[in-house]
Amino acid sequence: MTQAATPARHPRLFWRRFAALIVDGFLFLLLASLVTAAVTLAVPSLRPALSAPVFSLKSCEPAETDIAVFRELESVWTSSVDDPPALVLCTIDGLFMQQKRVALIAGEDTMASGQPYIKSIAVQLDADGNPIFPSPLIEKVVSAAEMLLFPLALALAGILFGATPGKRLMRILVAEGPLRTASSAPSEKTAIMREYLKFWPVCIFAILSVVLAAQMPNPTSIAEAASMLESFDPDLRILTHTFVLGGTTLLLLFGWWIWPFMIWRSRTWYDAFLGTAVIMRD
Predict the structure, then answer these.
(1) Which pTM does this prediction carry?
(2) Cβ-contact 150, 142 below 8 angstroms
(3) CA 35, 36, 37: angle at the middle one, nearest 5?
(4) pLDDT in tens, 212-271
(5) Who's near 207: CB < 8 A, 6+ residues apart?
């Protein structure tokens, strides 16, 4: 008696998809760096607030205490530990961006619970070495815009060229239809919806970061920066970082991106919702 042949299982293509995302992300960040640099050239007043998204090099060295900004930093420094703080001058070189200098004072202190921790005050300097206090909201808005535009850039690349540069390099593409017979290119609406469904945790994070930054006070002097540091509970900071940034991010990554690859083939949650799949190119 002849047995029916078992249909071949659709490949997961996990590593190809992962490599494609790395390539696409790198190219997008390179483009974002160029755009950010162009914005700072067009609007010089934004230069202190903006940084290169990637490709930045930071170098630090011990600073001389006779520099005016460091004398002021030492005058506002308080600590329950007798060890003197470290004074550091850092230089940040960003791709296509103007060089930045930051004065930093850092040292050990203790929480109310007696647990030691490292606290620091960082102040950006202008070309003359004077402290400046650009609004952190501007950089958060630009950073959020980059995160929100990344899915759109991927969708447009697929719509205009059939696949993103990363997918083309990895010889894969997004198709619409039943999993085993998917072959037609997704519609423009489906392509855009797919990318934003894929990156919704990143988009939500970007929006929340702007909302939180808008509620944070912006110091206008070294004394105000020190006062803000002293009024912020380090125990709360550690709890927030551990729970929100650590636990929530890991759960989202596992539940939305990693786990589906363990049980489905060429489809994740967003592919299942939209009837799309990632297949090998002919």
Answers:
(1) 0.82
(2) no
(3) 90
(4) 778 878 888 888 888 877 665 554 454 454 455 556 766 777 778 777 777 776 678 888
(5) 144, 148
